[in-house]
Amino acid sequence: MGRASSGLQTKPPSALRVRVERLTREVAKFGAVGGAGLLVNLLVFNLVRAVTDLPVVRASVIATVVAIVSNYLGFRYFTYRDRDKNARTREMTLFLLFSGVGLLIENGVLFAATYGFGWDSPLQNNVFKFLGIGIATLFRFWSYRTWVFRALPEPAPATVPLPEQPLAAERVSPPQRARV
């Protein structure tokens, strides 16, 4: 008992290892939702550019807003489904606030490239939109996990109650050995 099938005794993982494994899973889930959001963002951006005469940054803002909606659903119901769900109004307000900052970062990069440097070909638009998304994603990951989808408090470790100590009057002294 207490041994793995290989015959080695197993010990529980360290607290650091558990935290690293949780963070790794969280980053993977965030990346999966973010990857889907990236595809939505770029597809909507290029679709809007192809079928309308909207300026590049306006088309990008529309695409970013569509991606924000799809990302919220993915984050709430996949990445952070185990997080606190009690304050949805607060959660959505903060999500929209931080997503808005991300939108400004993302489209600020595209705006600077397009209107500041004159890089306005479809390929350049996509490259700088992608670069802006990457920079904004770093901000979003930090802000969402820190402020929006907050972790529930960890349960206190289970403690084993100590047996009650008998009262002094109830204590029995150990038997005395007879001297021979």
TrEMBL record:
Q: Where is the GtrA/DPMS transmembrane domain?
A: 29-149
Family recorded in the similarity comment? Belongs to the GtrA family.
Per the UniProt record, the source organism is Streptomyces broussonetiae
Q: Which InterPro entries match?
A: GtrA_CellWall_Glycosyl (IPR051401), GtrA_DPMS_TM (IPR007267)
Q: Where in the cell is it found?
A: Membrane
Q: Which UniProt keywords apply?
A: Membrane, Transmembrane, Transmembrane helix
Record keywords: Cytoplasm included? Answer: no
This protein's membrane topology, according to the annotation, is:
Multi-pass membrane protein
Q: What is this protein called?
A: GtrA family protein
Organism superkingdom = Bacteria
Annotated TM spans: 27-48, 54-73, 94-117, 123-142
- Note whether GTP-binding occurs among the keywords: no
